[in-house]
Q: What sequence folds into this?
C-alpha cells in the first residue's frame, strides 16, 4: 500500500472551522494565495528587468543571504524531522540545534529568504519598492498563518512542556535561551 502523507495540522484546523463550506472557503483561500504570489514575485520581476549587464554587489549579497537562509531552513527542517522520528520524543518539544535558539527557526530562515530577494532587487531600478515583500511575510508569519496557528496547535498537543519552551525560547529570532521560570 502507498504512504499517505499526514495533512498539516493547520489545514485540519481550517477544515474543522470552515465546515460545511470547506471547499468554497479553501477555493478562495488559495485564490488569495495566488494573488499574493503575484505581488511577491515583484523582486524577481524587477531583477529580470534590470538593464545593467553587470552583477551588482547587492546581487551578490542577496545571493549569499539566500544561500544562508536556504541552508538554515534546511538544517532546521532536518533537525525537527530527526527529532520527530525518534519514538522516545513523542509528546515532547524539540529543543535541539536551531530549535534551542528559536521556537520557529524554519520560519525565521524562510523570512530571511524574502529579505534576500529584497536585497537582490535593490540593485535594480525601483528595487527598493519591494521592501513590502519581507514585511508582508513577517506579518503573515507573526499574525496570520505561521506562529499563531503553530503555537496554538503545539499548546494543545504538548501542553506544559510547550509553555515552558515559550518561557525560555525566542519565538522567532534565534537567540540564547532564557532561564526557566520554574524552580529547580
A:
Amino acid at each position: 500500500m502507498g504512504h499517505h502523507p499526514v495533512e498539516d495540522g493547520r489545514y485540519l484546523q481550517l477544515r474543522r472551522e470552515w465546515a460545511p463550506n470547506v471547499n468554497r472557503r479553501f477555493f478562495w483561500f488559495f485564490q488569495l494565495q495566488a494573488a499574493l504570489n503575484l505581488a511577491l514575485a515583484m523582486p524577481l520581476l524587477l531583477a529580470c528587468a534590470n538593464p545593467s549587464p553587470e552583477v551588482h554587489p547587492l546581487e551578490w549579497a542577496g545571493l549569499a543571504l539566500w544561500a544562508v537562509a536556504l541552508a538554515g531552513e534546511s538544517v532546521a527542517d532536518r533537525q525537527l524531522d530527526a527529532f520527530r522520528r525518534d519514538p522516545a520524543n513523542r509528546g515532547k518539544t524539540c529543543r535541539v540545534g536551531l530549535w534551542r535558539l528559536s521556537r520557529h527557526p524554519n520560519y525565521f530562515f524562510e523570512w530571511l529568504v524574502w529579505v534576500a530577494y529584497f536585497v537582490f532587487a535593490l540593485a535594480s531600478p525601483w528595487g527598493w519598492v519591494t521592501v513590502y515583500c519581507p514585511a508582508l511575510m513577517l506579518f503573515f508569519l507573526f499574525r496570520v498563518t505561521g506562529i499563531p496557528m503553530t503555537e496554538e496547535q503545539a499548546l494543545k498537543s504538548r501542553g506544559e512542556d510547550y509553555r515552558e519552551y515559550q518561557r525560555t525560547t525566542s519565538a522567532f529570532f534565534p537567540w540564547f535561551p532564557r532561564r526557566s521560570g520554574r524552580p529547580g
